[in-house]
Amino acid sequence: MQKLQKHRLVLLLGILVALVFFYLGVNTWLESQERKASPPPVVRSKPPVQIKPKTEQVKPQTPKPQQVKKTPEPRKEKAKAREIQKAKEVKKEPEKKPTAKKAVVLKEYIAQIGAFKRKNNAQRSLNEAKKKGFSAFIVEERGLYKVRIRLKAKDLKTALKTARKNFSGAFIVK
């Protein structure tokens, strides 16, 4: 029995010595790593500068109104001068030229608004999209029923905005 106890004691003492050496080794290794590692360099990038296109604003030149000398005049002449002044003011107003509106070309986009394992959930989402006035359809891919809508917009950003306004997790597929 004593032999077994001595054997256990020697084994435990060996494990204790091994743990102490392990701790000291790890501790010195960590300290050496801290000395070697310098802090990472701080990189500061300037925010991108937005360049605005130069637009020249052309201001229509308006003729300066002629000043009328104030002299004592009879009432008829004053009335006539007022009519002339009003006629000049009417002429000052620039003529409005009819502007031709550019035809906006709308592109067709397809947005996915949901993907479901069960067809009845996809059908429910499809009905909701149709109630909101969208042209919607279901595509079956890889075991999922994907509900998609057709959008017409001038660009991708506008199409995505429209889709997300009505369906929060929507994304553009095509």
Order of adjacent strands in the largest pleated sheet: 2-3-1-4
Fold-level CATH name of the domain at 107-172:
Alpha-Beta Plaits
Note the gap between the termini.
82 Å
- Poorly predicted sequence stretches spanning 5 or more consecutive residues: none
Top-tier CATH class of the domain at 107-172: Alpha Beta
The largest β sheet comes out as: 4 strands, antiparallel
Name the shape in a single word: elongated
Pairing-aware structural class of the strands and helices?
alpha+beta
List the secondary-structure elements in sequence, H or E. HHEHEEHE
Question: What is the number of E strands?
Answer: 4
Number of helices: 4
- Our estimate of the beta-strand percent is 15-25%
What average pLDDT do the residues reach? 77
Helix content: 40-55%
* Radius of gyration (Å): 42 Å
CATH hierarchy: architecture of the domain at 107-172: 2-Layer Sandwich
CATH superfamily caption of the domain at 107-172:
Sporulation related repeat
Describe the structure.
- The chain is α+β, with helices and mostly antiparallel strands.
- It has a domain at 107-172: Alpha-Beta Plaits.
- The protein has 4 helices and 4 strands, in the order H-H-E-H-E-E-H-E.
- It has helices spanning 2-36, 75-92, 119-131, 156-166; strands at residues 107-116, 135-141, 144-153, 171-172.
- Strands 2-3-1-4 form a 4-stranded antiparallel sheet, covered by helices on one side.
- A hairpin with a 2-residue loop joins strand 2 and strand 3.
